[in-house]
Specification:
By secondary structure, this protein is α/β, with parallel strands linked by helices. The protein has one domain: Aldolase class I (TIM Barrel, Alpha-Beta Barrel). The protein has eleven helices and twelve strands. Helix 1 (53-65) packs across helix 9 (297-310). It is globular, with a radius of gyration of 19 Å. Bound molecules: S-adenosylmethionine and iron/sulfur cluster (2 copies). One iron/sulfur cluster (SF4) is lined by residues 28, 30-32, 35-36, 75-77, 104, 126, 331-332.
């Protein structure tokens, strides 16, 4: 195990490196309207373009040495990556505080026990509605909600802790069903998190009018519940958390109405070995060729830390002044 380096790099705005999101595939079984609209054509990476698990493990260990404490596996749909639990097992042995996965949950059932036994204890499952019609529309018209709901219940039974349920809220599409989702999740000990619809990528025809600000949801909920803000768990926590009626925790990810670039400590690694220092980057920085060269782990570590030190991203803070027209990486290529 590589020990934590005490000189954690800081970027241009003095933000430390704390989180790494690792995309293990750009492919997905869903076609969520806000991420991979079915009307578009997609070309996915070929297998030989992927980083292999050994390469991911080496990079992750170097990121941990540079200060990363939290790892999240994402995609595309990460459960489509063969033998994912082997990677989880390797990553769970690193000196980190948190290892989790974000999945649409549809294929979870046969993976739950292998992932749990490999060392995964936390899950985030994306679920935009508990109602079949809305779920089907938002996920691309092909899937049935009960499978995700059943898999969430099964995950609880197996022993996964603090399971989060990510719901992208889109005005006029699912915002009228928020309370149903909330009740379904909270009554089962799951933590729903309402995400403002973001202008990620270039394919989703994003319109500001479709964003439901978290403040609006909060004020709606306040009419039915006693809503109390909760303290931040750690610096850079993405979600603002609230307690409803002293018993139910919910979260909001308000990247559009209340940007949190100032505390953004996240780097992202794409399936084909590019590092992105912002969800809205146009280009990543290639690291695969370095991994496959004669470079030593020390050389790669220096490369990573230099890259972080140059980082000056703060897209969500400048979105309203710069506009949303720039070319951006697609969400399914780097995960959430
Ligand atoms: N396929 C997995 C899933 O859906 O959970 C992991 C990858 S997905 C890109 C990661 C997260 O990004 C999901 O929770 C999804 O809801 C969220 N997401 C995708 N497009 C989004 C958008 N336009 N605005 C806000 N969140 C989005
Ligand atoms: Fe797939 Fe996740 Fe994107 Fe939906 S949000 S299309 S499940 S990658
Ligand atoms: Fe981080 Fe970029 Fe999102 Fe700002 S816009 S919070 S820098 S990922």
């Amino acid at each position: 195990m590589i020990a934590q380096d005490t000189s954690t790099p800081r970027d241009f705005f003095q933000r430390p490196l704390r989180d790494l999101r690792i995309s293990v595939t750009d492919n997905c079984n869903f076609r969520c309207t806000y991420c991979m609209p079915a009307s578009e054509k997609y070309t996915f990476l070929k297998k030989d373009e992927w980083l292999n698990f050994k390469e991911i493990q080496l990079l992750a260990s170097l990121f941990v040495k540079a200060g990363v404490k939290k790892l999240r596996i994402t995609g595309g749909e990460p459960l489509l990556r063969p033998n994912l639990s082997d990677l989880i097992k390797d990553l769970s042995e690193l000196a980190i505080e948190d290892l989790s996965i974000t999945t649409n949950g549809y294929l979870l059932k046969p993976h739950l026990i292998p992932l749990f036994q490999a060392g995964l204890k936390r899950l985030t499952v994306s679920l935009d509605s508990i109602h079949g019609d809305t779920f089907s529309t938002m996920s691309g018209g092909r899937y049935e909600v009960h499978r995700v709901l059943d898999n969430l219940e099964k995950a609880r039974e197996i022993g996964f802790e603090s399971i989060k349920v990510n719901c992208v809220v889109q005005r006029g599409v699912n915002d009228h069903q928020i309370e149903d989702l909330l009740k379904w999740c909270c009554s089962r000990g799951l933590i729903p998190r309402f995400i403002e619809y973001m202008d990620v990528g270039n394919k989703n025809q994003w319109m500001a009018a479709e964003v439901v600000p978290s403040s609006e949801i909060l004020s709606r909920l306040s009419q039915h519940y006693n809503v109390v803000p909760m303290e931040e768990n750690y610096f850079g926590e993405v979600a603002s958390r609230y307690l409803l009626d002293d018993k139910w925790e919910i979260g909001f990810i308000s990247s559009v109405s209340q940007p949190f670039c100032g505390s953004c400590t996240r780097a992202r690694l794409s399936t084909d070995g590019k590092i992105y220092t912002c969800l809205f980057s146009g280009q990543g920085t290639e690291v695969k060729s370095l991994l496959r060269s004669k470079a030593s782990p020390e050389d790669i570590f220096d490369f990573l830390t230099q890259l972080w030190k140059k980082r000056n991203d703060r897209y969500s803070e400048v979105r309203s002044t710069e506009g949303v027209s720039r070319e951006k990486v697609e969400m399914y290529q780097i995960g959430g």
